[in-house]
Design brief:
The structure is a homodimer.
Chain A: H1 10-21, H2 25-32, H3 37-46, H4 49-59, H5 66-70, H6 73-81, H7 85-94, H8 97-105, H9 109-118, H10 121-132, H11 138-141, E1 147-149, H12 155-164, E2 174-178, E3 184-189, H13 190-195, H14 202-205, E4 212-214, H15 219-229, E5 233-237, E6 243-248, H16 249-267, H17 279-306, H18 308-313, H19 316-344, H20 353-383, H21 386-416, H22 421-448
Parallel strand pairs in A: 1-2, 4-5
Antiparallel strand pairs in A: 2-3, 5-6
Chain lengths: 451, 451
Amino acid sequence: MPVIGDAITPGFLHEIRQKLNREDKVALLAALDDVHEADIAEIITLLSHDHRANFMRLVGRDIPAPVFAELDDGVRDEVVEYIDIDTLVATVQELDSDDAVFVLEDLDTQEQQEVLQKISASDRALLERALEFPEDSAGRLAQAEFVAVPPFWTVGQTIDYLRDNDDLPTHFLEIFVVDPRHQPVGVVHLSEVLRTQRPVNMENILHDDFTVIEADADREDVARLFERYNLVSAAVVDAERRLLGVITADDVFEVITEEAGEDILLLGGVGDENVTDSVVEAARGRFSWLFLNLLTAICASLVIGYFDGSIEQMVALAVLMPIVASMGGNAGTQTLTITVRSLATQEISALNAARVVYREFGIGLLNGILFAVLTGAVGTVWFGDAMLGVVLAAAMIVNLIVAALAGILIPLGLDRAGIDPAVASSVFVTTVTDVVGFLAFLGFATLFLLN
Amino acid sequence: MPVIGDAITPGFLHEIRQKLNREDKVALLAALDDVHEADIAEIITLLSHDHRANFMRLVGRDIPAPVFAELDDGVRDEVVEYIDIDTLVATVQELDSDDAVFVLEDLDTQEQQEVLQKISASDRALLERALEFPEDSAGRLAQAEFVAVPPFWTVGQTIDYLRDNDDLPTHFLEIFVVDPRHQPVGVVHLSEVLRTQRPVNMENILHDDFTVIEADADREDVARLFERYNLVSAAVVDAERRLLGVITADDVFEVITEEAGEDILLLGGVGDENVTDSVVEAARGRFSWLFLNLLTAICASLVIGYFDGSIEQMVALAVLMPIVASMGGNAGTQTLTITVRSLATQEISALNAARVVYREFGIGLLNGILFAVLTGAVGTVWFGDAMLGVVLAAAMIVNLIVAALAGILIPLGLDRAGIDPAVASSVFVTTVTDVVGFLAFLGFATLFLLN
């Protein structure tokens, strides 16, 4: 029974590696016997490439099918190479349709066709239909195994049907009530079936305020719906509103985690990188972000270069100028972060955007004044020049206000233009704060300190 | 029936505001009649402070209890001020215990006591016990309403018990089988109860490999467990392994969203800020982060100040030096982001840390060489000085390698020391890349270009 904290230990992993080195299949299977599918997937992920190949060659045919559904895409791609087509077919047939689709979608087209040809016609039809939906859609997330009954059935009839029918899914959370066109008219929670007397009709206990998701809906919207309405499952329908399948909470955890993680990675400039990517793949992915940053850093340098005469006259400007730019960059990033996060959780929308912009302006102004006083004092004391302190303070106020406005208006603008605000905002915001920071400080200095 | 995309429209919100201005309670309640509790909570959140106060004064007694559970903490704090103690008592009594605790934990101690005194002794005991668990613990998340039966009951007896007993929760996902000490020995999914013949004993269909969570476990660990093992619900037990309550998937969505969001906010230097915080609260929260950054920016300036003689001799150094620091900062942030994210999803652990450090070194070296060539060319062409280009290139390689190492070793170190790596890593990493960037560039220039 899994209890928090008893994940895979280094000792256990070491044991697995030793058995692999000895190619001791029997001992390996015995060690894995009580291990949860998700933990076997984790072990496979933690092994080196060579050990992984060995592992699959040795016990690939014997591990439970759900292990394949639990693997991360990158590792699954690799692992699928090591097993034969019959194991793949058996795996796909054993899994629920949503998990089977996970495994199938990663195969190349020829292999996918080969597997689909070898499974039963009814399963094939289900999977082919699911594969036709876009990759991040509700249609892909849904499993085609569910229980549906007509409204005029009694609770007793429903229970008898469930007891007598071996074809039904072993595990389900609710019963859908459908009309003759197979359109859902309501949903009955299993606890309600259990708590109701046998003669009562299903139509008398159904909820008609249940959630219906269209198959081509984006999975991110699906996740929001589950969060917002505290769902544990929801019906997925086709364009004619016919019941196609059901999405359950466990499918949604992964979506929520991945979508929230995507924003972190995008803001940090590492796009869709994964720790399992190779060095060259990762370096290539990060290169383009750094290259963009190089261009913007050169813009900032051009601004400085424009004031080279001033710096020559007063080297203290070169010493202090990074402070203004750095504070602006950080303040802008703060605003940007809260904006991107609030857009993702829909706490900011067209309904309150103006109020939030006003709020950020206020925060920028307030902190701008505070840091103007602080840095002004630093500049004055360090170089014994009160006017230098004033110039530093003035540049600081300007840059913190501009940072706040850039931090909110840039992501809001991108969002309104239909571009993911997490993607490009960061580089725009820091460019603005760098350029404005250097421009304001060196410009004010040139105007008021020199000549 | 909620369908994706039919959230609150600006028109509907406008309508609500008009009814509020007219103080038309009847029309307001009619408009809210079909609206889901989560959407009413959203409307309350979107209203201005004045409208919110009006709204609660007008219909606070009439809106469904779950609305209070759906509100964000900050808004709930405010809203609770506007309603009388009897409404609060009614709300707490109507909610499931986990949601009631949400509402109670935000009240001040005196008000909390007042509410607790006015509810039934059995409810009070449940809630007081829940409130004793730490704020982010499994004990707080769990609801005390669940169904438990002894192992020797038959399926038929269980169904009859469910049908005849009005005290049971209306909605549950599984039945716990408990021994005489009230320790869970297994779990039966409702679909299995429904699919099994009446004479079969519950002990014959129970799963004993179910998940048990200790009440003082951190809610972040609870979320990981749900994700990892695809749970829709899990039993919560006390220190004696007695069944206390159950956590369901819908409780966990919020945890996952919040925890992932926390990392974004911490990395961006905005801690636990919420868009509903006031300007002064938000500015105060962000001040400390910016202040820390000011101190590190001054460190970087001290490094530059040490080379003021060199800059006086060659102002091109001042123009180019931010490029080295900025590239290092970005490269470090990339590594840091992927590290923090992978630690949160447990893709990096003690089991593979060394491999990941080696990988980051490789990425830093590779991109260091590429950007050394690029920036070396820029420096040479811009200032017509090949040696300046070489110095820039050398500083770039050094700083990108240091950035990669800082970006992985700092968060790993903090994590090992038991400190959340998202909290403080960012400022350490950019300090390292600023200082090393200026030091390397100005240092190499002083050694090889001047004199």
